Amino acid sequence: MSERRGTRRYDLSLPVMIRIPAQGFAETQSGRTRDISTRGLYFVIDRDVRAGSELDIMLTLPREMTNGEEVLVKASGKIVRVESRMEDGNERQGVAAVIERYDIMRAAASA
Fold it and tell me: Considering the entire predicted model, what is its pTM?
C-alpha cells in the first residue's frame, strides 16, 4: 500500500476534547491523540462514533512544543475512519479525522 499523506505526522500523545453535534453528544468527550498533522489526527476515545460525522476538536500544545507559552488549537473536521482497539484491557475507539478548519490561540501574556 502506498503512502497517501501529503503532510508529516508527529507521534504525539496529548489530551484532546471532542464534540460530535450530529450524534447528539452535547457534552464534550475526552480522549488522547496518537498522532497529529496540520491536516488530520488520530485519537482514541471511549465512546462509539461514526465515520462521516462532523466533529469539533480542542487541544492544547504544551510549552515544550511551542518554545514559550501553551497554544490552544480549536478545529473542526470530519471522521474518516473508526476502528476498535484494546488499551489497558479496555475496548476503545481509534478515530482518524481530517481537519477542515482550525484556529490557533496563544495564551495571553502574564502581567
Answer: 0.83
- Give the pairing of strands 29-36 and 10-11: antiparallel
The whole-number pLDDT of residue 85 equals 92
Contact 77, 44 (CB under 8 A): no
CATH number (domain holding residue 38): 2.40.10.220
State the average pLDDT over residues 67-92: 92
For 30, phi then psi, to 5°, come to -100, 150
CA angle 9, 89, 46 (to 5 degrees): 60
Cell 462532523 belongs to: 54
**How many residues are given for the chain?**
111
Cell of 16: 484532546
- How many structural domains compose the chain? 1
Half-sphere exposure of 18 (CA within 13 A, CB side): 30
Strands (E), the chain: 10-11, 15-19, 29-36, 40-45, 54-61, 71-87, 90-106
